[in-house]
Design goal:
Helix content is about 40%, strand content about 20%. With about 500 residues, it is an alpha/beta fold. Helix 1 crosses helix 8, helix 4 runs parallel beside helix 6 (about 155-165) and helix 10 packs across helix 11. The longest helix is centred in the first third of the chain and has 20 residues, at about 40-60. It binds nicotinamide-adenine-dinucleotide.
Length: about 500
């Protein structure tokens, strides 16, 4: 059993205060401890970041991009080891762990385009002898606070653009699976990033509050549950920081009567139960339109949920592995019990699943509820486990209304062969990311990622060109040289008239 360290100023720094145990979800065994930073540790990380940032900002964008290119090479070299470590501490399958890292690396690839993306504007002769230019400058020290469910992807979605833009970055990863993010920061340094530009501090609310209250932190990116996202957003804004905070989800998949039912069922099984439902883009609500569609869907869906293969992260034939922690497993099972109390029909009950030889692991099987109604808590709240709810609206308009009335608006999908219906849905649905016959419409790195309503707080999305806006401030310079200046003071605001 080993203790994890913080990573501050390019050095491993041992924790001196509180610690938290780290568990292996497959066995339930303690596999190490992570320090929980106090205000002094956070201050040390921010101080180091502040000291390193001006030097890093002075490195030209192309050389900064080369560090990211080298990082891509190193992360690819270490992909197997990274995926094994990630799967072990999170519980997701190895194939899914690779996907987690890969989706992070795709954003790093995008950020290699920083020299182009940071280009400013220039207008020659905007007025008599007057030129106007604009430039993007880094903010200084930026911070990221990340959730347990994508321990590689989300830290990279924040760190890569922050660093590419010339900022220093302090990451506070989830205290449930903090080893992979730490390893990523070490690889960045191996790739040539100067010490202090990427720091990692482990911790809980105390560390988060210290970051939010630190005047040297100019921007905060957060991903996690909505309640904390809202809290972080409000506190960061109260301290005059720029903030983007992404929260929870309840993603619907509308199945129209004309949909290819086989494809819809495949999509629901993968998007509903992949990674044990611990994805912010997981489908947690199936919405077949009309009773005939519901019957046809459930006829195929029920046996598929019953035959899901739950296994060890290392088992290549497993559909999904254990959940992240005992507390989370109990919480998810609690929601299933609540659904039964609320009179939803539990068609498949995976609560009693036991993994032979791994009885202390955090395993459960897939669950499927039918006849769920909008007033039930299992519909209103995010469960974040392998639990799918079926609602049965009578019409397309009712289905659309259901999605639009939900407090979350992260992702949504429609399955149909009807182009008019798909187009109407994409246009009117109040959700940030929409799939047409695509169950998990996670945008590619060069588009932006973000939900609507209570799934996101702040204006700019993650990755794509929004990331370059979030991690820079714009300066506009208006120049006139002596030969273009006419004599005399002017007391009137200049206009183009
Ligand atoms: P969480 O909110 O419990 O934790 C997220 C981060 O906040 C962690 O770093 C944690 O240490 C910190 N934190 C926890 N409690 C805090 C408090 N009281 N004060 C300050 N900081 C605190 O979330 P989680 O369980 O790690 O992750 C799952 C959640 O993240 C789900 O709700 C999921 O939908 C959401 N998520 C959203 C997106 C998105 O892009 N919208 C992506 C992935 C996950």
């Amino acid at each position: 059993m080993s203790d994890l360290t913080h990573f501050i100023g390019g050095r491993k720094v041992r924790g001196t205060g509180r610690f938290t145990d780290l568990y292996e979800p497959m066995t339930g065994a303690v596999i190490g401890r992570a320090p929980l930073a106090g205000a002094a540790d956070v201050r040390a990380a921010v101080e180091n970041a502040r000291a390193a940032q001006p030097g890093w900002a002075a490195v030209n964008p192309q050389r900064r991009a080369r560090v990211l290119m080298k990082f891509l090479e190193l992360a690819t070299r270490d992909l197997d080891a990274l995926a094994e470590g990630l799967a072990r501490e999170h519980g997701k399958t190895l194939a899914d762990a690779r996907g987690d890292i890969q989706r992070g690396l795709e954003v790093v690839e995008f950020c290699v385009g920083a020299p182009y993306l940071l280009k400013g504007g220039f207008t020659d002769s905007a007025g008599p002898g007057i030129d106007v230019s604009s430039m993007r400058q880094p903010l200084g020290v930026t911070a990221g606070i990340t959730p347990f469910n994508f321990p590689a992807m989300i830290p990279l979605w924040m760190a890569a653009p922050a660093i590419a833009c010339g900022n220093a970055f302090v990451l506070k990863p989830s205290e449930r699976d903090p080893q992979t993010p730490l390893r990523l920061a070490e690889l960045m340094m191996e790739a040539g990033l100067p010490a202090g530009v990427f720091n990692v501090i482990h911790g809980d609310r105390e560390a988060v509050d210290a970051l939010l209250d630190d005047d040297d932190v100019r921007a905060v990116a957060f991903v996690g549950s909505s309640q904390i996202a809202e809290y972080v957003y409000a506190r960061a804004c109260a301290h005059g920081k720029r903030a983007q905070c992404f929260g929870a989800a309840k993603n619907h998949m509308v199945v129209m009567p004309d949909a290819d039912m086989g494809q819809a069922v495949d999509a629901l099984i993968g998007a509903g139960y992949g990674s044990g439902g611990e994805r912010c883009m997981a489908i947690s609500v199936a919405v077949p339109v009309g009773q005939d569609t519901a019957r046809a869907l459930l006829e195929q869906l029920v046996p598929r949920v019953e035959s899901l293969k739950i296994g060890l992260s290392t088992d290549p034939s497993a559909d999904f592995g254990p959940l992240v922690s005992r507390a989370h497993l109990e919480r998810v099972k609690g929601y299933v019990a609540l659904g039964v109390e609320e009179s939803a029909r539990l068609l498949v009950d995976g609560r009693d699943f036991r993994m032979q030889g791994y009885e202390d692991g955090y395993f459960m099987g897939g669950c499927l509820f039918d006849e769920v109604t909008p007033d039930m808590r299992i519909y209103k709240e995010e469960i974040f486990g392998p639990v799918l709810s079926v609602l049965r609206p009578q019409s397309y308009e009712d289905a659309l209304g259901l999605v639009n009335a939900h407090e979350y608006g992260n992702g949504v999908a429609i399955f149909t062969r009807d182009g008019d219906a798909a187009r109407d849905f994409a246009s009117r649905v109040q959700v940030g990311m929409v799939g047409v016959n695509v169950p998990i419409p996670t945008p590619l790195a060069y588009y932006t990622f973000g939900g609507w309503k209570r799934s996101a707080f702040g204006d700019l999305n993650q990755h794509g060109d929004d990331a370059f806006r979030f991690y820079t401030k714009t300066k506009t310079v208006t120049s006139r040289w002596p030969s273009g200046i006419k004599d005399g003071a002017s007391f009137v605001i200049p206009t183009m008239s």
